[in-house]
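Question (not urgent): is this output format expected?
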Amino acid sequence: MAGLGAVKESKGLYLSLAGGYVWNRKAESNDPNFATQEYTTSEGVKTRQGARYADLTGMVKEVEFRTHDKYGESINVVFDADGEIYIISISTNNRYSQDMMKALLVMDLEKNVFIKPYDFTDKANKRVQGISFRQDGEKLNIRNNDAPNKESEWFGTASKKEMKRFFEDLSDWFVAEVEEKVIPQLGTPEPKAEKAGLGSASADEKEESTDVVGETPAKEKAPAKTKEPIEKKVSPIAMKKALKLYIAENYGEETLPKLSKEDLVTWYNLALQEEELPFQDSTEVAGDDLDSELASLLSK
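Got this back:
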């Protein structure tokens, strides 16, 4: 696309999803698609800016999960749009990432896919956020009936700590499914016919949400206990999942705190050796995202 070349990374142009749009945060103010958008956080009103687009069409070429010491886990999805490479990076603790993983599990990976994020307040004053996907002109049904879920009554009585653990486990479930079923399939097929690239953004465009998080919780098996040292093939996400199970079995109400890469490896090795984990005084995570996620589920 004209005007994007100056801000390309070595592997492609990194994009983010926020506020119902696709953003190139590195774009300069003279970019024809440059825009600003105010949003509210627990710290007050902030402003994001960059080149803003309504949608992206391309073929998925690569999926990678990464762990950053400061920003935590993210999913990077590489799209080839008629030879232009775009990398959408989303935190796994994010509604957009869950929709992206759901779609990866059901889409045809040998065809272009149209993606359009949305984020708006409905008539009942509830926030509706996610991604709409289309292939071959048809909207994808990204519902996954195998994903863990709880009855609506459970959400009415569960504590924030219990809900936080549920949503973390749900995210880990989708990550594991994508790692097992999607990443091994990815190759380099030629894009099929459909105009690819970034779509210009319109502030009036909105999409209705039709996704529902799974149905029945899948019973997870506890990781096999072994005295062997950590292997290189164990990913940070796999270590985190094993630690959560180990903590649930041995520490009651404790939850896995936010850890650096080095501490994550240390804790994982301690769990393998069935040693005590060095818990500090835990702090409750801000509940804004949790409340939004709960409201979304209960509104279905």
